[in-house]
From TrEMBL:
SUPFAM superfamilies: GroES-like, NAD(P)-binding Rossmann-fold domains. Coiled coil: none annotated. SMART domains: PKS_ER. Its EC number is 1.1.1.2. Keywords: Metal-binding, Oxidoreductase, Zinc. This is alcohol dehydrogenase (NADP(+)). Belongs to the zinc-containing alcohol dehydrogenase family. It is an enzyme of class 1 (oxidoreductase). CDD domains: CAD1. It holds the Pfam family ADH_zinc_N.
Length: 347
């Protein structure tokens, strides 16, 4: 075992504090990664606060990890010492079910994907995430960060980037398609960048016009305030695809009415409360409400290469580890543009 410094929540809703954790020895097919940057995702806050159910404590959050390989196991063939790599929302899966074999490890129906933190590994030990100095993962669950991406702006792509890239690709965002992104935050700003780069006509639907200039600069063609009832009148029947990134419950019936015939409203935000919807707008337009969870390893690599090819990463604010608790408060207050990234050298 290797002892490393980390920031952990000792109990539900407790402030994070500096501590030490143990990482497993480097196995035959493992890589040891010196973590350089770790993004702060709203999911981290949900789980620290037990908003999604009972959690495992102490908890070291963080599933947006960018770093450098410092040791490899004897059987490793994909990476060598010095390679720039990333780790996202999961670190293993059954590897045998139809979804794992299809590169959809996030939907593993065998033993299930093993999440990067707040989960039990195959040896029964809790997993610990990226708010730490180092992590050990199987080579098959790391991805290569292209040279065209700096590690700090690449870190949030391991969750925020792939969370938007996967549904945008799956539902065919591209030339001739009208795509709306609901919410311009850590997830939403990546949705705007990616949908624009895919060639879609992009609209931001945000509660207010406060971030309109940002949205247009990121690649949006249009920007509307959802607090204005006229928005829902003017845009009725407009969109092929709407991706909701917000983690609060919305009036989904209102958003469904913005879809064209056969349009889809895809939710990637994860509200803690159930939502209700009127089925008649679905029936009368052959519309659908769907969800999407991150992406598999191959698609995550594809997303990183896509972002590098188009010359963008996340919009970030780099912070010291001592600022994590303040950053959590600022995320809840929507006071970040658009992703906090921890410089793990400060742990």
């Amino acid at each position: 075992m290797t002892t490393v410094a980390a920031y952990a929540a000792p109990a539900a809703k407790a402030p994070l504090e500096r501590t030490t954790i143990e990482r497993r020895p480097v196995g035959e097919f493992d890589v040891l990664i010196d973590i350089k940057f770790a993004g702060i995702c709203h999911s981290d806050i949900h789980q620290v606060q037990e908003g999604w159910g009972t959690a495992i404590f102490p908890m070291v959050p963080g599933h947006e990890i960018a770093g450098v390989v410092s040791e490899v196991g004897p059987g490793v063939t994909k990476y060598q010492v010095g390679d720039r790599v990333g780790v996202g929302c999961f670190v293993d899966s059954c590897r045998e079910c139809e979804h794992c074999e299809a590169g959809l490890e996030q939907y593993c129906t065998g033993s299930g994907m093993i999440q990067t933190y707040n989960y039990l590994d195959k040896d029964g030990r809790p997993t610990y995430g990226g708010y730490s100095e180092k992590i050990v993962v199987d080579e098959n669950y790391a991805v290569r960060i292209p040279d065209g991406l700096a590690l700090d702006v690449a870190a949030p792509l391991l969750c925020a980037g792939i969370t938007l890239y996967s549904p945008l690709k799956h539902w065919g965002a591209g030339p001739g398609k009208k795509v709306a992104i609901v919410g311009l935050g850590g997830l939403g700003h990546m949705g705007v960048k990616i949908a624009h780069a895919l060639g879609a006509e992009v609209t931001v639907l945000s509660q207010s016009l406060r971030k309109k200039d940002d949205g247009l600069n990121l690649g949006a063609d249009h920007y509307y305030a959802t607090s204005d009832p006229k928005t829902f009148e003017d845009l009725a029947g407009t969109f092929d695809l709407i991706v909701s990134t917000v983690s609060a419950p919305l009036d989904f019936s209102g958003y469904v009415n913005l879809l064209k015939i056969d349009g889809a409203l895809v939710n990637v935000g994860a509200p803690e409360e159930p939502i209700t919807v009127n089925v008649f707008p679905l029936i009368m337009g052959r519309r659908s409400i769907a969800g999407s969870a991150i992406g598999g390893i191959a698609e995550t690599q594809e997303m990183l290469d896509f972002c590098a090819e188009h010359g963008f990463g996340a919009e970030i604010e780099v912070i010291a580890a001592s600022e994590i608790n303040e950053a959590y408060e600022r995320v809840l207050a929507s006071d970040v543009r658009y992703r906090f990234v921890i410089d793990t050298a400060t742990i």
